[in-house]
């Protein structure tokens, strides 16, 4: 295989997986680790990937890389729908229940299902609290739900309400379950997101809830972004679409996190 052809295949692999290790690439192409590192240097110079310790990541996996809400809505849609179905089953069927919905496209898939929610028994109530403007609009059409929206500053990129007022309000709440999104879930770094202000809001949600359920498709597993907002020990359940890699699986087990495959 010519070097140019190998470069193209490496770039395609990293783009599809989000990351690849030096050892993995050396074995896949039957080349030395030194050759892999030279290939990664060439690809980084052309902007097709970014080298990190032990391998490379796709450009959109950098610590501060963040797509807008609209750009993310069409990605991994099948996985997000499966996660939403599994998450819906976790909502308790009790006379009174309260849930907190974080802003994000995976949590939005759950919100879409809740837009059609109706009580299992007459008189049952479900209070949904969210910091997402689009979710509030969608959920507001269901008169069978009770809906609260967190107040504060709106972050344009994600349409999420964030900031000091939001975190203060969340500190005075104790919902039954918080459904939280994440840009990265890593065995050492924990749960992360690129923006510090949005991270602070997520931290407040995690601390507020009696139970924390993270909704994340397989592309988020093993990833790290700029700001940690929770450790693995602070979450109760991870709903995802693939078995975590061994290191992450071990860390989740050690932290007592239940992994639900959708």
Concise account of the structure shown:
With 262 residues, the protein is an alpha/beta fold. The protein is built from 10 helices and 15 strands.
Description of the molecule:
The protein is 38% helix and 23% strand. Residues 63-69 have low confidence and may be disordered. It contains 10 helices and 15 strands. Helix 1 packs across helix 3 (33-45), helix 5 (77-88) packs across helix 6 and helix 8 runs parallel beside helix 9 (196-208). By secondary structure, it is α/β, with parallel strands linked by helices. The chain has helices at 3-17, 22-29, 33-45, 69-73, 77-88, 105-114, 133-139, 164-171, 196-208, 246-254; strands spanning 19-21, 50-52, 55-57, 96-101, 125-130, 146-149, 153-155, 160-162, 177-181, 184-186, 190-193, 211-215, 227-230, 237-240, 258-261. The strands form 4 sheets. A 7-stranded parallel β-sheet has the order 6-5-4-9-12-14-15, with helices on both faces. Helix 10 links the parallel strand 14 and strand 15. It has 2 domains: 3-61, Winged helix-like DNA-binding domain superfamily/Winged helix DNA-binding domain (Arc Repressor Mutant, subunit A), CATH 1.10.10; 69-261, Rossmann fold. The protein is elongated and about 70 Å long.
């Amino acid at each position: 295989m010519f070097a140019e052809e190998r470069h193209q295949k490496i770039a395609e692999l990293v783009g599809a997986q989000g990351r690849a290790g030096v050892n993995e690439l050396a074995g896949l192409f039957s080349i030395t680790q030194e050759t892999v590192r030279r290939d990664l240097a060439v690809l980084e110079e052309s902007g097709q990937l970014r080298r990190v310790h032990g391998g490379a990541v796709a450009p959109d996996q950098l610590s501060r890389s963040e797509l807008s809400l609209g750009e993310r809505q069409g990605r991994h849609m099948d996985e997000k729908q499966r996660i939403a179905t599994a998450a819906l089953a976790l909502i308790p069927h009790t006379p009174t229940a309260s849930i907190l919905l974080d802003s994000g496209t995976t949590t939005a898939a759950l919100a879409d299902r809740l837009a059609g929610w109706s009580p299992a028994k007459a008189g049952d109530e479900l209070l949904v609290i969210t910091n997402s403007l689009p979710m509030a609009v969608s959920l507001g059409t269901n008169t069978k739900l009770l809906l609260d929206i967190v107040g504060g500053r709106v972050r344009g990129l994600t349409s999420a309400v964030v900031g000091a007022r939001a975190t203060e309000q969340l500190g005075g709440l104790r919902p039954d379950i918080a459904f939280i999104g994440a840009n990265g879930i890593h065995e050492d770094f924990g749960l992360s997101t690129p923006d510090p202000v949005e991270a602070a809001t997520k931290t407040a949600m995690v601390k507020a809830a009696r139970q924390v359920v993270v909704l994340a498709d397989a592309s988020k597993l093993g990833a790290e972004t700029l700001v940690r907002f929770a450790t693995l020990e602070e979450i109760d359940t991870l709903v995802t679409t693939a078995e975590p890699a061994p290191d992450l699986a071990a860390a989740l087990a050690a932290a007592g996190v239940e992994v639900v495959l959708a």
